[in-house]
Amino acid sequence: MKNILHVISSPSGENSISIKLGNAIVEKLVAEYPGSSVIEINVAKDPFPHLEENLIKATRSSAAPSDDEALVRSNKAVQQIKDADIIVIGVPLFNFSIPSTLKAWLDNVVRPGVAFTYSENGVQGLITGKQVYLAVASGAIYSEGPMKDFDFAAPYLEKVFNFIGVTDITTVRAEGVNMPNLKDIALQKAIDSIAV
Ligand SMILES: Cc1cc2nc3c(=O)[nH]c(=O)nc-3n(C[C@H](O)[C@H](O)[C@H](O)COP(=O)(O)O)c2cc1C
Question: Model confidence over 123-176: pLDDT tens digits?
Fold first, then answer.
């Protein structure tokens, strides 16, 4: 039995490939770990605002009031990560990177003191013992070939999660979804490749 957090960031609703792929990963995890709980958050529908001065102050000093609205929401997002055993993140590739809504969510959870800490020896991640699955959807192919170096989404997310202490990261790709020869099979191929 696991606590699963599913983070959706595609604005495309029922047409979204990354949501379908994320759902398929969650389904396989629930089948593997019966009785698991699943919390779903949709940062496209319910976006975190860009960081403002009050939240920076609240998360980087002890001066701010603890009932600051932005801080309460940020703390909730951190707690959701801490409570999860497995985090599944749907990632549409947008202009070679992640949607800005997903970046805004990251800015709310990758915070010093709660997600990582600075020590004399450098930086230490505080979010340990978790598994992350990235469900990446892209119009072209980035796992290999001439576009590989243009992928600033999966490598970036892998580094961010490494930084906060997560080492067990699996990236599943539905790629070539806009390519005539792959668009009809890309999602199923990705679903078939899911190993939990
Ligand atoms: C704003 C925007 C930017 C995109 N940028 C890229 C890109 O840089 N590379 C790519 O291969 N596909 C790109 N695409 C195609 C999407 O990655 C593809 O449609 C994918 O299925 C989106 O995920 P979703 O279906 O979960 O929304 C872009 C699509 C949109 C809407």
Answer: 999 999 999 999 999 999 999 999 999 999 999 999 999 999 999 999 999 999
Atom 23, ligand 1: residue with shortest CA distance: 92
Domain segments of the chain: what residues?
Answer: 3-192
Candidate CATH numbers 1.10.150.130, 3.90.580.10, 3.40.50.360, 3.40.50.300; the one for domain 3-192: 3.40.50.360
Give the angle subtended at the CA of 58 by the CAs of 56 and 61, to the nearest 5°: 95
- Residue whose CA is at the smallest distance from ligand 1 atom 28: 94
Q: Separation of 25 CA from ligand 1 center, angstroms?
A: 20
Region for 105 from its dihedrals, namely left if φ exceeds 0, alpha if ψ lies in -120 to 50, beta otherwise: alpha
Residues with CB under 6 A from ligand 1: 10, 12, 16-19, 92-96, 137-140, 177-178
